[in-house]
Design brief:
Number of domains: 1
Bound molecules: zinc ion
Helix content: 10-25%
Number of helices: 1
Strand content: under 5%
């Protein structure tokens, strides 16, 4: 749940990730502002 780069809470990926525990962690550690790793679209070629 925590970002390995900055140690803050990473943004929720889906609705199930929005938990009270996550909210509490965000208030303690803050929200990760790192850019999410984006896979190059051309990398997936069938
Ligand atoms: Zn981060």
């Amino acid at each position: 749940m925590l970002c390995l780069s900055c140690g803050r809470v990473r943004p929720a990926l889906n609705r199930d990730d929005y938990t009270s525990e996550r909210a509490r962690l965000i208030t303690q550690h803050g929200l990760c502002v790192c850019k999410p790793p984006q896979l190059p679209r051309d990398a997936r070629r069938s």
